[in-house]
Amino acid sequence: MANKKRGYIPLWRCIDQNPILNDGKPFDRFHAWVDLLLEANHRDKTFSADGRPVTVRRGEKCTSILHLAEKWHWSRNRVKRFLATLEANSMCTTKRTNAGTIINIVNYGIYNDIQFADEPTDEPADGPADGPQTIMVKNEKREARPKVTAEGVQIE
Fold first, then answer.
1. 26 neighbors 73 (Cβ within 8 angstroms)
2. Residue of 47, 61, 53, 49 lying closest to 13 (CA atoms)
3. How far apart are the two ends of the chain, measured CA to CA in Å?
4. What's the pLDDT score for residue 19?
5. 25-62 as b/e, with b when 16 or more CB fall inside 10 Å?
6. Helix (H) or strand (E) holding 95
7. CA nearest neighbour of 118 among 141, 134, 137, 142
8. Which residues, 6+ apart, have CB-to-CB distance to 77 below 8 Å?
9. How far apart are CA 72 and CA 27, in angstroms?
10. The whole model's pTM is what?
11. How far, in Å, CA of 112 to CA of 134, rounded?
12. Within 13 A of 139's CA, how many CA atoms are on the CB side?
């Protein structure tokens, strides 16, 4: 994030389902970080664990070290060391609970604040002047163009 002027691309969460990218090989640290970004909640979510409601906020993921180790093809100690490195670099925080380990992505909004035109926003209409800007993307269908020959005659 040293050079924010380079921009970013939106990345669909389902990219991890692509068989070319999901080849069963061990993750490197970059892919593990991207996986955490993809798996973090994009909105608050509540679920039940042992009969108690657990709320996982936007930018957080509730998981286990064992689950990450199996998914990334790493040892549990390697996962713990990686998460400790992320914490030391102020990229995430972790909190152990009875429901699992909650990983909080620090500054999650920097990675995931793109607002589509058809989604409601939580900000007031006059919104704050400073802070991250949202990109408005219109998702509207265009009318089909009439088919025309090289001479300009419309084909029905």
1. yes
2. 61
3. 53
4. 78
5. eebeeeebbebbbbbbbeeeeeeeeeeeebebebbbbb
6. strand 92-97
7. 137
8. none
9. 5
10. 0.66
11. 10
12. 6
Distance between CA 45 and CA 56 in Å, rounded?
Answer: 5
- The length of the chain, given as a count of residues: 156
What's the whole-number mean pLDDT along residues 8-27? 78
Query: pLDDT tens digit string along 124-153?
Result: 554 444 555 555 555 555 566 666 665 566
Return d(Cα 117, Cα 121) in angstroms, integer: 9
Measured at the alpha carbon of residue 19, what is the angle toward residues 14 and 24, in degrees to the nearest 5? 105
Dist. CA 92–CA 66, nearest whole Å: 18
Which residue do the tokens 């989604």 mark? 119
